[in-house]
Amino acid sequence: MAPDNAPFPATAQTPGQTMTVTYKTPEEQEKMRIAGRLAAAVLDMIGEHVQPGITTGELDEICHRHITEVQNAIPAPLNYKGFPKSICTSVNHVVCHGIPGAKKLRKGDIINIDITVIKDGWHGDTSRMFMVGEPSVRARRVSTIAHEAMRRGIELIRPGARLGDIGHAIQSFVEAEGCSIVRDYCGHGIGKVFHEDPKVLHYGKPGTGMELVEGMTFTVEPMVNAGRYETRLLGDGWTVVTKDHSLSAQWEHTVLVTAGGFEVLTLGASGEI
Ligand code: MF3
Ligand code: CO
Ligand code: CO
Description:
Layout (H helix, E strand, L loop, with lengths): L9 E4 L6 E4 L2 H21 L9 H15 L3 E2 L12 E4 L2 E3 L13 E10 L2 E10 L5 H19 L7 H14 L3 E2 L5 E3 L6 E5 L16 E4 L2 E3 L5 E3 L6 E3 L5 E3 L2 E6 L2 E4 L9
Antiparallel strand pairs: 1-2, 3-6, 4-6, 5-14, 6-7, 8-12, 9-10, 11-16, 12-15, 13-14, 16-17
Helix pairs in contact: 1-2, 3-4
The protein binds 2-amino-4-trifluoromethylsulfanyl-butyric acid and cobalt (II) ion (2 copies).
C-alpha cells in the first residue's frame, strides 16, 4: 500500500512486502513524457509499413533504426533478460512477447507491435494493434474490445482510486463482450526501471489493491483473448500464445497519475487514446 501523501522523490515500502513504488518528481515526469512520446512516435511511423508480405523481422529493423538513429534513444527490449530483438511483434493467436523474425504478414492477420524506448534513462512503453489488409469481423472485434478495455481502465485513474478498480473495469467489460482477459501477464510500474512495482492486474475487485498516488507512472496493457484466457509459453522462452489457439489482442499506454486524474504519456500524433 502506498502512503496517503507521497513526498517527492520517494519510495514506499510496506512492511513484510517487497513492493517498492517510485513516485516521479515533476522533472522526472517531464522525462517520462519525452520517452513516452518517442515510443508513440515509433508506432505512428511503423503503421504504413504493416503490409502483406513484410516480415516481422523487417518491422523490427525499421523500428530499431528509427529509435537508434532518428530518436537517439535505446530500444529497451533488446537484450532485456536475453530478448533478442528491439520490439515485440505478436501476430493473431500470439498474446505477447512475439520475437520478430522471418514470419511474413498476410492479408487478414492482426499484429500487436509493442515499443519500449529509453531516453535519458527513462522508459516509455506502448503498443497498438494493426490490421494487415481487411481483417475478419472477429479479428477486428477482439482488437476493438481490447482497446475499449484499456480505455475504460485508464479513465478511472486518479489519486485515491485503487488498482482493483481498474482491473475490475477491464475484466467486467471484456467478459460481458464474451471474450476473456489474460491473467498470466499484467501491467507494471515504469520509470528508470522497465518493469517496477506495482503490478497492474487487468482483473480484480473494486475497492481492493494499492491506492493510486499523484506521481505514480504505470502501464495499462490488457491482453484480450477471443476464446479462453489460458496461455502457453513456446519453446523459445518468450512467445506467449493462447492455449486454445484463439485470437488475442492487446493495447498499451504508459500513464501518469496527476492531481486531477491521469495523463497518458504515450499519445501519438492523433492525440487519441
Ligand atoms: N513491452 C513489454 C511490456 O509491455 C515487455 C517486453 S519485454 C521483452 O511490458 F523482453 F519481451 F521485450
Ligand atoms: Co509494458
Ligand atoms: Co510494452
